[in-house]
Amino acid sequence: MSDWTTHRIGTGHDGLAPFAVHADASRGRLVPEPESRTRTPFQRDRDRIVHSTAFRRLKHKTQVFVAYEGDHYRTRLTHTIEVSQIARAFARALRLDEDLTEAIALVHDFGHTPFGHAGERALDRKLADFGGFDHNAQSLRIVTALERRYADFDGLNLTFETLEGLVKHNGPLVGPNADSGHPVPPQIMAFDARFPLALDSFASLEAQAAAISDDIAYNTHDLDDGLRAGLIALDDLEALDLAGDILREVRARHPDLDPVRTGHEIMRRHITRLVEDVIATTLESLATHAVASVDEVRSAGRTLVDFSPTMRSQVAQTRAFLFQRVYRNPLVFDTMRQAEQVVEELFDRLVERPDLLPVGWSGAAEGLTPERLARHVGDYLSGMTDSFALAEHRRLFDDTPDLR
Fold first, then answer.
1. Which residues contact 354 (CB under 8 A, 6 or more apart)?
2. Average pLDDT for residues 215-235, to the nearest whole number?
3. Where in the numbering of this chain does the HD domain appear (predicted)?
């Protein structure tokens, strides 16, 4: 593969590559609004996301380890900021719209429940008869309906391009290029009927950059948090092609470096190798396919922002290692099972007694059909932080587990 620094990308009048999304060509918003005199549409999207209630709640939502296990573990908010930083690096290197890339990165985890994937599994079971629960669909629901900050509309009224990136950052949802093993959540289909998001096409390079930044961030930082928690040791990284090679490189150059700094050195080099591989692979792919517009990106038939085959294999190996040694470690697994129980018990109690919901939520629950009531309670629970979910459980039950 050629050195990515040798590639040159032509730019338009706004300094962006021809295959980037250009703000002045945005497809607009569900509810039309006057243009800002000082910000592009994508800058407004980013600002609305950052100032939303859902963004603030990410501070107290679990990534892998519940916050009570230590102050230095990632939360959904710190993870989101890390994803955004990596995504902007891709946008700069590829001459994409940085503001759109950042907006998609910042909003991508809005729909996550308290206690991470444990809470999602619990709600998915409880809502199985009503379409299930999907955090990506919930993110869309939050930014199109549940955030209520503006006089003229529910949600944040984000642009087509940001919503498209949120919904399709992992690829098309329908059509020949969709993952047929995952049906489209009904919430996405319902919104698409109102404001079509071209669910059969690939998303922009900005969205693809945000998606692969998520992979890079959690693969690297879950290794880091696993080391910090004592679930894995530095020597365990020897079994990994990527991290093991970096470990040997660091030890050869700094033989007397203490373990903590060795870990930090490995992680920063881990991110650098992944990022540089993606830039080189993507530039080569864009050149090979002669991609010259965002429409050609959407119709390319494949993801263009990607790892090389060798690096993709190494990323998959790291992911499998994390599942075995961290995510399914008995200490983590037992805590997450208790967290699932907390969410399930809250759901059952509040569906049975919607009058126990707070003011506003309880009033809106009156007269709802069983399906709408279940979704209403799911919306309420999914927005909770870890600490608030435990506080609500203590309010409604005599025995609340200590998730440590």
1. 362, 365, 366, 368, 373, 376, 377
2. 92
3. 76-219
Same domain, yes or no: 105 and 229: no
pLDDT at 385: 92
How many whole angstroms separate alpha carbon 219 and alpha carbon 163? 25
Mark whether 192 and 46 lie in a shared domain. Answer: yes
Angle subtended at Cα 36 by Cα 32 and Cα 39, rounded to the nearest 5 degrees: 125
The alpha carbon of residue 128 and the mean position of all alpha carbons in its chain are separated, in whole angstroms, by: 23
For residues 389 and 378, what is the distance between their CA atoms, to the nearest angstrom?
12
Which residues does 108 contact at the CB level (< 8 Å), separation at least 6? Answer: 80, 83, 139, 166, 169, 210, 211, 214
Q: How far apart are CA 285 and CA 1, in angstroms?
A: 11
In a domain, 1, yes or no: no
Answer yes or no: is pLDDT of 91 > 90.
yes
C-beta of residue 74 within 8 angstroms of C-beta of residue 63:
yes
Dump pLDDT digits (tens) for 138-161: 999 999 999 999 999 999 999 999
The residue count for the chain: 404
Mean predicted confidence (pLDDT) in 182-189: 90
Determine the pLDDT at residue 169.
Answer: 84
Looking at the structure, tell me whether residues 301 and 380 fall in a common domain: no
Residues 138 and 210 both lie in one domain: no
Kindly state whether residue 298 falls inside one of the protein's structural domains: yes
Domain count, the chain: 3
Q: Which two tokens stand for residue 121?
A: 């599994």
Nearest to 335 by CA among 386, 398, 384, 379: 386
- Residue 256 Cα distances to 74, 109, 236, angstroms: 28, 39, 19
279-301 average pLDDT score: 96
Give the mean model confidence (pLDDT) for residues 114-134.
93
